[in-house]
Amino acid sequence: MKIILATSMRGLGGTETASLRLGALLARRGHDVVLAASDGPLVAQAQAAGIRWQPLDFYGGAAGYLKAGWAFAKLLRRERPHIVHCQMARIVPACALAAKAAAPQTKTFYHARGLDAATYPKIARLFARLGVFLIANCRHERDKFIRHGFPADRAAYTYNALPPIPAAPQKTPRSHIALGTLSRLDKVRAVHLTLDAFALLLQRGLNARLHIAGEGEERAALEAQAAALGVGGRVSFLGAVRDLDAYFAATDILLNTPDLAGDHGAGVGNNILEAGLYETAVVSYDVAGIAEMVENGVTGYCTPLRDSTAFAAAVETLATDPALRRRFGSALRRRVTALCSDDEIYRTTLAAYHMADKT
Questions:
Q1: In the chain, helix, strand, coil percent, each to 5?
Q2: Do 156 and 140 form a contact (C-beta atoms < 8 A)?
Q3: What is the pLDDT of residue 294?
Q4: CA–CA–CA angle 225, 228, 230 (5° rounding)
């Protein structure tokens, strides 16, 4: 099967990482995968994984969007793919219209990874009219689209593909509890709420340090907040992290405080899946689809949104109970590897593609 993954690859965010991992998995299973995307730090990895790269940028303003749509139509006419798999909502109309004009046999899919809450009704109706099929990044996201009017018989879900699974994750011995975050530093990921909870934990006497992994527009504000809270000496900013082995060896508990109310946000997050692979206990707000992996009291703790007291209490419980940390970490690894194994992601992705054969 020939599959075109259409996306942006400019950064090191969740969408770029998920696109790379999915494309590499499909290429390993013998499919001809073309990455139609802008250049970025992960493109060389994609090519090394056997993915063909076609430079294409839908994010150059209105004129750039039209130019990219025209170039995409030419690409479709030349490649005649079975599937166009759009990884971002913005590019779907151009890709779907290009497919109708240049390659009518090609089916267009949108991989839903979250939208602004107010846009769901509009996007669900528009994409339905365009004949697009939906692959959501969790059950919660699929059900949200159906609730907003997207046809259920054209909607499926699959979790994000995983990086290589470490054989025997290890924790580096230390005299304190190491807490970590791993996400883009933006307002939605809301690491400032993690800092508030961390300050509360230090006030309670917990011997802990926090390392914040990731880059983004909020970094300067977070550094200033840490200083204002008087915790700057116990907080490290690591920048973008590529070595997951080293990061999770130095992390006892992963903290996750995305500020996502109602229909905001989607999915489980690569950070949660990666924590599972490294048998690392997780404390997260119960938002989007996170509880599909982090079952409260079973594979981690999911606490109510913006409840810093409940969140800090959950962290403190894990921090003072190494056996519970190990139990949660092992349980999360079993759940993640069952639901996100290469075989399962491949099965659910191909099942979604074959939805198009029935319409």
A1: 45, 20, 35
A2: no
A3: 98
A4: 110
Distance in angstroms (rounded) separating the CA atoms of residues 221 and 219: 5
DSSP for 210-247 reads EEEE---TTHHHHHHHHHHHT-GGGEEEEES---HHHH
Range of the domain at 54: 2-161+341-358
The span from the CA of 231 to the CA of 195, in Å, is 9
> Is 230 found in the same domain as 155?
no
Asked if the model's pLDDT at residue 359 lies above 80, the reply is no
Are 252 and 345 contained in the same domain? Answer: no
Number of domains in the chain: 2
The enclosing domain of 15 has a CATH number of 3.40.50.2000
The 10 Å Cβ neighbour count of residue 313 is 18
- Any domain includes 197: yes
- Three-class secondary structure of residue 244 per DSSP: helix
Q: Tell me the HSE value of 44 on the side-chain side, using a 13 A CA sphere.
A: 1
pLDDT digits (tens, 9 = 90+) for 193-230: 999 999 999 999 999 999 999 999 999 999 999 999 99
pTM for the structure as a whole: 0.89
Claim to verify: residue 186 and residue 152 sit in the same structural domain: no
Query: Can you tell me the distance from the alpha carbon of 48 to that of 224, in angstroms, rounded to the nearest whole number?
Result: 40
When the pLDDT of each residue in the chain is averaged and rounded to a whole number, the result is 95
